[in-house]
Write a structure and sequence with these properties.
Length: about 200
């Protein structure tokens, strides 16, 4: 029971402060992982992949994943509910205030400050996911100083197959007008065939 209350509290805090959408929840998930041990950094990478390739908002999908993998069905219900409660309360309050003060310079300044903060949180989350997806982090421990760097050690840390796939998918997205699901499914098949 205490663990479910802690799960609820962690996701309530995440929902209260993760401004910017689903990817903005990632720094909170990294912190939650370090504090609770409910899931690993690799699990977070899997959460993002699964959440991006399934219907629904990213943050709610990740909360459901954490809740279910840590506490079964009760966790799968409590975590996403706890994540969205702050948003619902804040949106109701803000909607009423904005209607009265939408032309206020203070309100405009607040939103001008929130946009860069949201961008920074999403960028930090994106870089964290890229690190997990494109590097063999387990091979980084053998490199303790710049003097230990060699071409072989750098190649040992880089996940060359994943980097090539990321570049190919990026170029394909920019060049061809295909639905994102196509790229998600194609990447999943490539991951199976080439054993990422």
């Amino acid at each position: 029971m205490i663990s479910l209350l802690l799960l609820s509290w962690e996701f309530f805090k995440t929902g209260l402060f993760a401004v910017g959408g689903g990817l903005a929840t990632l720094p909170f998930l990294y912190d939650m992982s370090a504090k609770t041990g409910w899931f690993s950094l690799e699990d977070i990478s899997n959460m993002v992949a699964i959440s991006e390739s399934t219907p629904g908002p990213l943050g709610i999908n990740m909360a459901t994943y954490v809740g279910y993998s840590s506490f079964s069905l009760p966790g799968a219900l409590i975590a996403p509910l706890s994540l969205v409660i702050p948003s619902i309360v804040i949106i109701v309050i803000v909607a009423g205030i904005l209607e009265k003060f939408k032309e206020s310079k203070l309100v405009k300044d607040i939103f001008s400050g929130l946009r860069p903060a949201s961008t920074a949180m999403i960028a930090a989350a994106g870089l964290s996911v890229a690190k997990i997806a494109l590097l063999h982090l387990e091979n980084c421990s053998g490199i303790s100083a710049l003097s230990d760097l060699s071409l072989a050690s750098i190649l040992d840390v880089l996940n060359i197959k994943a980097i090539i796939l990321a570049i190919v998918v990026y170029v394909a997205i920019k060049k061809f007008n295909r639905h994102p699901i196509f790229y998600i499914m194609l990447s999943a098949v490539i991951g199976i065939v080439f054993k990422f």
